[in-house]
Specification:
The protein is built from 2 helices and 8 strands. It has about 120 residues and is of the alpha/beta class. The chain is globular, with a radius of gyration of 14 Å.
């Protein structure tokens, strides 16, 4: 059984976040699996294995500083994720590299997305 069915964060500007996440999720091998009326966009392998972004509103408050780590299929994808995220306006929160303090073979990069979330791409050798 999978740990999650889906995880969702609320974003300030859905259209801008969509452009950002379309780019980095494609690099990591994930596709758009759900899109609801300019309100919610889901990325992943299917609707029961996805990461969602949702337009914030008075009813759905903006998410604050989440840390989400996405699996990458290889080292190169981690590097490409990092570079593309920076080009799309993210800030560096940890350059691509091995993180022996986490575990042997843990290769990751960390960025801060346009809404302040710590987003990680990780490949485990």
């Amino acid at each position: 059984m999978k740990l999650f069915n889906h995880v969702q964060i609320k974003v300030k500007y859905l259209a801008a976040s969509k452009q950002f996440y379309d780019t980095i999720m494609k690099i990591l091998g994930y596709k758009t699996v759900l899109e609801i009326d300019n309100t919610v966009i889901g990325y992943g392998t299917d609707v029961h294995d996805m990461f969602e972004i949702r337009q914030s509103s008075s009813e759905f408050c903006l998410s604050q500083s989440a840390h989400i780590a996405f699996n990458a299929p290889n080292l190169q994808c981690v590097n490409e994720f990092y570079q593309a995220a920076l080009e799309k306006g993210a800030r560096c929160n940890g350059k691509p590299g091995f993180r022996a303090e986490y575990e042997k073979g843990y290769y990751a990069a960390f960025i801060i997305d346009p809404d302040g979330h710590n987003i990680e791409a990780i490949y485990k050798e």
